[in-house]
Amino acid sequence: VEGKEAVEYKARLIEEVEADIIVGIQDDEVLAPILETVAPRKTVICESPRFVKKRGRDERKLLRELCYKKYLKNAKVRSFPLSWVTIKGLPLSFVSNYHNVKQMRSLQRSLGVKIFHYEEKPDKAFVVIGRNKWINEEQISKFEKECNKKLVILREGDEEGLLVALENARKEFLGIGVIRGIDYRRKAIKLYTPVSDEISTIHVGKIVLDKNMKEIVSPSLISDYSF
To answer: Does 78 lie in the same domain as 119?
Structure first.
């Protein structure tokens, strides 16, 4: 467990699975920050066997990439209407309403750039524009002053490569997949996955993979704003 983000991730994982008992294997009290976060759950802590080799960061990354290839074997691209699935882990809910549509059209006219999707949250407004399009800082500042919201600019394709976990309606884990893209015009999401069962929920993570199932160092922009 290295760094604050690793501690927060492990703590969230424990909360998500609603663990009754936590079993940890550690050296030199490295799990202490996690245990403090998830107290007062029951814990069983064991010291790491001396003969077990500690894997380095690069070795762990290589092993993860081998697992991606293993569990994505025989995968194919499947398309799902956004209205058919629940997507967790992205800042966008993809729910259209009259206000969002009206605001998107108004903003599109004032900015002079095609907007694929517009969505508001209590303190932010998200705009999805083309891959190589830009909005100047003056226009962004003007919008933020008028609407009293931070304007977050996302681009078509920011979601590509994000690793996802797939569940059915009974919240049973079905397998993993990779986002190939979101079609904002047709309101559909494309996944590269070996899962052929009916999918109810897509859990989006922060790991980004290239077409060869290698982890990309720079995270996708859209994952920086996930909930």
So the answer is: no
